Amino acid sequence: xxxxxxxxxxxxxxxxxxxxxxxxxxxxxxxxxxxxxxxxxxxxxxxxxxxxxxxxxxxxxxxxxxxxxxxxxxxxxxxxxxxxxxxxxxxxxxxxxxxxxxxxxxxxxxxxxxxxxxxxxxxxxxxxxxxxxxxxxxxxxxxxxxxxxxxxxxxxxxxxxxxxxxxxxxxxxxxxxxxxxxxxxxxxxxxxxxxxxxxxxxxxxxxxxxxxxxxxxxxxxxxxxxxxxxxxxxxxxxxxxxxxxxxxxxxxxxxxxxxxxxxxxxxxxxxxxxxxxxxxxxxxxxxxxxxxxxxxxxxxxxxxxxxxx
Length: 309
Ligand code: BMA
Hints:
Tachylectin-2, Chain A, 48% strand, binds beta-D-mannopyranose
């Protein structure tokens, strides 16, 4: 029987849900946002380019996960030597009764990842830089494993396509025991590079990792989203990676903008009814949302699996 053409991720008909017109201070984009639920409300931390080309992070809140109101002031601006060129692509992880925020920090020394935390999104405390340079896209798992925090990260490399790794920490500051867990597949939609996207979602079948993958064309890179499933007790083990992407640039604001042909995620929220809201940026310009069945995404990793490395 032919497979259905029904999309795995159902785009919200009100997309885009956040644009620069919604921001009460001067910005050029609203993109690459981490999203979490706090006291029943959705909190979005989004990246904005300023007119000097550097980025800051703003905050928006919503009762329903679709209609967001932006706060009057930016939430984070680059501070100090290692954030001199700005802060980008925040991910939010709720653990131990607080929210961890991982973000890319740019400076004359390169790009590395910073960790900050907040109990309520009113105040913010910087913890530490948690990588050296040439690392981006850090997502922390919302549970510990044998007393250790775990994160997926994405080191840069000159001799192999950029891949997804896992690292462990007793205290969120010192990380190690890193191993590679997943690599791009050759002549595949993610062959150029992959990176962790949303904070992993716990499912009955394993941890769902919604990641981005890049393919290079004559017209430049195309960013799409895919899914992988990690073992529930040991997330360094991948139990399936969907051969198919789950989302590709399609709407006008995904096809053109600050960087064309990009859908890029930094956050998803699992709901009690078994669905997840997946948030992505279109063309590094605007924020969009869509819904998917968590079980269907996990099943896709198992039934249409390609080898992880
Ligand atoms: C990546 C990062 C992301 C960006 C993406 C698409 O390398 O710079 O922040 O969204 O490219 O341009």
